[in-house]
């Protein structure tokens, strides 16, 4: 079979389209023929290398996707041959304290497919049943592959961590990014007031189509506009995933008692905080990584009910993965980039 792998960290040239033996389906696993796989910013971070995180090499890339069940281990009594399924990207043991408390993503043993172990950008994969969920009937393989990682991450951030409330103002950076597009839909379903940013005027319509109430061009000064929109109060929640480039503005526009929740560091990992403002305005800075299974199930229910909608921008072949990475790094996408075998 063919698979997208890295053997070391670096630029686009480390992405390889390798030939491998098909994985053997063990008694406690299910074998999936992959039909589509999503490309995430996580793929770029993994390719470049994550400081402080040991990534096993060589590594099959990719965290989420969709496919068909082609073989079922003899110890498994779930699913049927031919079932159309999506991948739940989080991995965890059953005997951890946090897992027993249904806080799977708090476990120190929590991992992500395509980061801490082989991922799913290959023609076939074998997975635990807890990493598989039936696909929504109304979606294509490409659409289904686009949704899990970004909606899980965004749901955990807004619902579980920041505890966004009805009629609160939320600032969501990067409307055309995967997590940005998902976060807008989640926030609007919660009846929040969404302010979002884009990098150019041609992306305004996309942001409004996702449901944003206010769309701002982040290439121009925007903090004073946010103050005007919020009657000089600032936003109640900032959905932060950019890092140093936006960090100071994020804190500047945060209301008293506001919550800044962050899941990423696209522009770097080092930021500064003026503690005087933090404690005097009684603000919270909250970290968030992936999601628990309860959040995953909630996301899948919303997808099945057609509340959360897919946003596939462009589809590349596995063999053209370098072009796909370049497309994402150049920030050309309007939504999700998908890979197919």
Q: Find the CATH superfamily of the largest domain.
A: Medium-chain alcohol dehydrogenases, catalytic domain
If you compute it from the alpha carbons, what radius of gyration comes out, rounded to the nearest whole angstrom?
20 Å
- Average pLDDT: 95
Low-pLDDT segments: none
CATH class of the largest domain: Alpha Beta
Largest sheet: 7 strands, mixed
Q: N-to-C terminal Cα separation, in Å?
A: 10 Å
The gross shape turns out to be globular
| Strand-residue proportion | 25-35%
Task: Please tally the β strands and state the result.
Answer: 18
Structural features, described:
- This protein is an alpha/beta fold.
- It has two domains: 2-147 and 310-340, Quinone Oxidoreductase, Chain A, domain 1 (Alpha-Beta Complex), CATH 3.90.180; 151-287, Rossmann fold.
- It has helices at 41-48, 97-100, 141-145, 148-161, 178-189, 204-210, 223-229, 244-252, 275-280, 293-304, 321-329, and strands spanning 2-6, 15-19, 30-39, 59-60, 65-72, 84-87, 90-91, 111-112, 124-127, 132-134, 169-172, 193-198, 214-217, 235-240, 254-262, 284-287, 312-317, 336-340.
- The strands form four sheets. Strands 3, 5, 6, 9, 10, 17 and 18 form a seven-stranded mixed beta sheet that branches. Strands 13-12-11-14-15-16 form a six-stranded parallel beta sheet, with helices on both faces.
- A hairpin with an 8-residue loop joins β1 and β2.
- α4 crosses α5 and α4 (148-161) packs across α10 (293-304).
- The longest helix is centred in the middle third of the chain and has 14 residues, at 148-161.
- The chain is globular, with a radius of gyration of 20 Å.
